[in-house]
Amino acid sequence: MDAPFALPPRLDVACLPTRIRPLDRLSAQWGGPRLWIKHDDDTGGLLSGNKIRKLQYAVRQALDQGADTLVTCGGIQSNHCRATAALARQLGLRVLLVLRGEPPGVATGNLLLDQVLGAQIHWVTAEQYRDNQAVMESLAEQERRAGHRPFVVAEGCSMPPGCWGYIEAAIEIAEAERALGVRFDAIVHAVGSGGTSAGLELGRRLLRLHAMIYGVNVCDDAAYFRDRIAALAVATAQQYALPVDVPPEEIELIDGYVGEGYGRSRPDELRQLLDLARLEGVVLDPVYTGKAMFALGREWGHPRFSSAKHVLFLHTGGIYGLLAHEAALATALR
């Protein structure tokens, strides 16, 4: 479709557009509206997941500025850090990762891939990580003094250029609606750093999509993310002169599903993850998409969904992170 705005320049490394398909067996099991899935887990191998959509825009900006090093941050099993490390190596760039926690005895999942890719890892405590932007800026300054040209990528690439990744995804959704002959009433996704939400909220308004956006926060709470998402959306709109506003009170979040905490899963969450894999061949991760789908299942009878005809679930990836949860999954598989 012809969008009423121009997309900024970006890299062309992700496998886009991602497919949308119905989950008819799960829909029949749950009853009510028809559930669909958008496979942003298929954006491409080591780059898979939602982060590469954002990185295509942010790292293009980095290259335009002459950067030779990317600096970013995340948790031990950060999908974003893995995607950033992979993209950096594909482009011939150096990569520095600020990771929250302590190095484990044996690296698994995303951390193992970070090491395979040769990322320089700087470990910080949870307290130090609270001001991760300052930590990254300090590292970037050290890199400049050493003669390098660093570019700092915000946590989750949740920064104005990164938001364009999900404005573009909103265009894909609008095009899919036209091709499939459906109109989505709701779009549901996991929220961890806010950039995906901010991009979708901007895209929804710019394209005048019918669907409401529902984010399921996997950490913190709804009040925190309403302010964070709104601030990021407003900053993006201002930086790129977009004629939209995203007030915090208009951001819809499904709270109460953090469970045992970030990166921790309850047995019923893991059981649903396994059930979906066997029913539809869709493998989610315990940290983000698993919690979002669990929340959707529990909230399916709420009027915002029960009155809908078509609901779209955004699969934002995380398959490599799943491989770091072998102990919890082994228990669930018994």
Structural overview:
There is one protein chain. This protein has 334 residues and is an alpha/beta fold. The chain contains 14 helices and ten strands. It has helices at residues 24-30, 51-64, 79-90, 109-116, 126-129, 132-145, 160-180, 195-207, 222-239, 267-280, 289-299, 303-306, 319-322, 326-333, and strands at residues 20-22, 34-39, 69-75, 94-100, 120-124, 150-152, 186-191, 212-217, 252-254, 310-315. The protein has two domains: 20-49 and 159-333, Rossmann fold (3-Layer(aba) Sandwich), CATH 3.40.50; 51-157, Rossmann fold. The strands form two sheets. A six-stranded mixed β-sheet has the order 1-2-10-7-8-9, with helices on both faces.
Question: Topology, pairings included?
Answer:
Elements: E1 20-22, H1 24-30, E2 34-39, H2 51-64, E3 69-75, H3 79-90, E4 94-100, H4 109-116, E5 120-124, H5 126-129, H6 132-145, E6 150-152, H7 160-180, E7 186-191, H8 195-207, E8 212-217, H9 222-239, E9 252-254, H10 267-280, H11 289-299, H12 303-306, E10 310-315, H13 319-322, H14 326-333
Parallel strand pairs: 2-10, 3-4, 3-6, 4-5, 7-8, 7-10, 8-9
Antiparallel strand pairs: 1-2
